[in-house]
Design a protein that fits this description.
Elements: H1 3-21, H2 26-39, H3 45-49, H4 55-73, H5 75-83, H6 91-106, H7 111-129, H8 134-148, H9 156-167, H10 179-200, H11 211-219, E1 223-229, H12 245-249, E2 252-258, E3 261-263, E4 277-282, H13 284-290, E5 296-300, H14 312-331, H15 335-340, H16 348-361, H17 376-395, H18 397-409, H19 413-431, H20 434-452, H21 457-468, H22 478-486, H23 491-516
Antiparallel strand pairs: 1-4, 1-5, 2-3, 2-4
Helix pairs in contact: 1-2, 2-17, 4-9, 4-14, 4-16, 4-17, 5-7, 6-8, 6-10, 7-8, 7-22, 8-10, 8-22, 9-20, 10-23, 14-16, 17-20, 18-19, 18-20, 19-20, 19-21, 19-23, 20-21, 21-23
């Protein structure tokens, strides 16, 4: 081990510790490490900024806008309301109707807006028909994660791996390459959720907010509003009493739901965290002013009818644009179209760019506010992860770890190495962030395949699945954070259902991937 290997290894350990301690956002943590590697001469300035121009990363940014256009069109809420039965149903029957549709939508849209739209509708519906909303919200999050495994654009991690493959001069992933493994995983995963969640998930925990207080508030023109705190909320890590919420937002905090606890007494002493749900007393101005604010992941006031109804043409246009984007990116990869348009690469980047611009000009989302709909921290995390991946390769650390993986896999050979790489990627994504997990695992996949002299595609597919399939903790995926507060779940509620899900997805992936993408020897 030379100095560069030791330096990069210590830097990665420090990064993991910083991410787990959650003192800063992932983007600035990774950016700090990348700057450190540049100062040490391990990577060049060109390598440091290469990720910011990567097509995969920019495609993620464009898809944020496309997803926002779909969300604001009201198309998804219209569909889900038609699916939910109004009477005479059960948890199992309702899950069978709604979860496959959720997975289908999340295969082509960012998972977060899907959950933000569906969660309040499901919660209100469950209350109306006398079912516990806790039987639906974790399954809702899991269904979006499963759906994201099925296509190139289903989750940003797939696009990260795709972008890194292109950087290495490879062809990259096609739109439905992942469907061969993603669809079997989704079918089995949904079946497991439907069969077990009724028993494994808790009954709804009663709110401590008194109904008479709500009634009194309504007499003064205020009503109950629930908000989920986002990473951009300015009061994170601060005690509520030191953050004048009422002065800033014109609403009064009556209850805080944090890590499965409902707090109504001494709430001023509570230190606010991302994913906390605050129950507020607010007037209509609060919803109008902060409803689309990036400081809240989700806001619901118990009303399913939007304050400003969306014209029907926008709903149909949004669906049409989404279909054109998907179909266009799929057929644009065919040899015939590549021959007809040799100067234009009609891939997902091309069609996502066109769709986002058309949506902006049609005002599917407010074009003057387009920057607020992009999660910049995720983009910075992805871009910096490219540079960290380069540092792992340049220093020789990736090759050293690949040697270790090969020696540990022993007689199991490439198949055993695939399972070990999957497990390492899964642990990273459960502890920190999925995009960083995919980028860190990519050079390991490349070097491990080289050690065995085989095609790296099975290893790339494995890290796509492992980096996205984080079920066992609420911090593994943003959608888990959203439903944790909305459903008042404890950490252990995710473990009960999510840990078996992790194991099921891992077994299916490691078992099927080499059968679909064999370990073909390369010269």
């Amino acid at each position: 081990m030379n100095f560069e290997i030791i330096f990069v290894l210590l830097g990665l350990i420090g990064m993991l510790v910083a991410l787990i301690m959650d003192k800063m956002r992932p983007g600035i943590v990774l950016l700090s490490l990348v700057v450190l590697f540049m100062v040490a001469g391990i990577i060049t300035p060109k390598q440091m900024v290469a990720g910011f121009s990567n097509r995969g990363m920019i495609t993620v940014a464009l898809l944020f806008l496309v997803s926002e256009g779909i969300r604001q069109s009201g198309a998804l809420s219209t569909v889900v309301k038609k699916l939910l039965p109004e009477k005479g149903t059960s948890v199992t029957k309702a899950q069978m109707r709604i979860l496959p549709v959720v997975s289908a939508f999340s295969a082509f849209l960012n998972n977060t807006p899907v959950v933000v739209i569906f969660a309040p509708i499901l919660k209100n519906w469950a209350k109306r028909v006398g079912l516990s909303c806790t039987k639906f919200l974790i399954p809702l999050s899991y269904a979006t994660i499963l759906g994201g495994l099925c296509t190139l654009i289903g989750t940003s991690t797939n696009l990260v791996v795709h972008g890194m493959m292109i950087d290495k001069g490879m062809e990259g992933l096609k739109m439905f390459d992942l469907a061969y493994i993603g669809i079997p995983i989704t079918v089995v995963g949904l079946a497991f959720i439907i069969l077990t969640s009724k028993k494994l998930l808790p009954a709804e925990r009663p709110d401590n907010f008194e109904e008479e207080e709500t009634d009194a508030a309504e007499d003064t023109g205020r009503h109950v509003v629930e908000v989920v705190l986002a990473s951009r909320f300015p009061g994170l890590k601060r005690k509520l009493k030191n953050f004048d919420f009422k002065r800033r937002y014109g609403a009064e905090v009556k209850e805080i739901r944090q890590n499965g606890q409902v707090i109504t007494e001494n709430i001023g002493e509570v230190r606010l965290q991302e994913g906390d749900t605050l129950v507020l007393l607010a007037d209509d101005a609060f919803t109008r002013t902060w409803g689309d604010s990036s400081v809240f992941l989700m806001m619901t006031n118990g009303q399913e009818i939007p304050a400003n109804p969306v014209p029907a043409w926008k709903k149909w246009t949004a669906f049409a644009l989404l279909i054109v984007m998907i179909v266009g990116a799929t057929i644009g990869e065919l040899p015939y179209f590549q021959e007809q348009f040799p100067k234009v690469k009609m891939d997902m980047f091309f069609f996502a760019s066109v769709t986002a611009v058309v949506m902006a000009w049609l005002k599917m989302f407010p074009p003057k506010k387009y920057t607020k709909y992009i999660s910049w921290d995720i983009l910075i995390t992805i871009a910096c992860a490219f540079a960290i991946s380069a540092a792992m390769e340049e220093s020789g650390l990736a090759a050293l770890i690949a040697d270790f993986i090969k020696s540990v896999s022993g007689s199991l050979g490439a198949w055993g190495a695939l399972g070990l790489l999957y497990l390492v990627t899964l642990l990273i994504t459960e502890l920190i962030t999925n995009n960083a997990a995919a980028a860190l695992a990519f050079p390991l996949a490349l070097e491990t395949a080289a050690k065995f002299g085989v095609d790296p595609m099975p290893f790339f597919i494995a890290i796509c699945i492992a980096a996205s399939a984080g079920f066992a903790t609420p911090i593994g995926y943003q959608t888990n954070l959203i439903v944790q507060g909305a459903g008042n779940y404890k950490f252990t509620d995710f473990v009960k259902v999510g840990l078996p899900m992790d194991l099921i997805v891992m077994i299916i992936s490691v078992g099927l991937i080499p059968l679909i993408w064999p370990f073909t020897s390369v010269a």
